[in-house]
Write a structure and sequence with these properties.
Elements lengths: L9 H12 L5 H8 L4 H14 L19 H29 L10
Helix pairs in contact: 1-2, 1-3
């Protein structure tokens, strides 16, 4: 059912891409020489190698990058912004209720 993908180390990717892009080696020959099972990863490596050199083939960490823990000052600034938004919401709510006559002493009744 689930196909497994072959994993290739950084050195193999760079060597294969370099042989094809810089050395002019045909794709099928590079696949045989470097043990690449499919043409699609080799094409992908060559494209990345042309665009960004060997560093573009370096493995990248998976998942979301870790966030630095917030400083006390940053936490306080975030709390101030949250409270300011809450005050603005409550002011708008009070103004709307007054406009609709829903506040005690506003004189209007629905």
């Amino acid at each position: 059912m689930g196909a497994t993908h072959a994993r290739y180390d950084f050195e193999t990717k760079v060597a294969a891409a370099r042989a094809v892009v810089d050395g002019g080696m045909p794709g099928p020959e590079a696949m045989r020489r470097f043990g690449v099972a499919s043409e699609s990863p080799l094409k992908s490596w060559c494209r990345l190698y042309r665009e960004g050199g060997a560093e573009a083939l370096r493995p990248r960490p998976k998942g979301r990058p870790r966030r630095e823990p917030a400083t006390r000052e940053q936490e306080l600034e975030r709390e101030v912004r949250r409270l300011e938004a809450q005050v603005a919401y409550l002011k708008k709510s009070i103004a709307l209720k007054a406009e609709l006559g829903l506040l005690p002493g506003s004189g209007r009744r629905p």
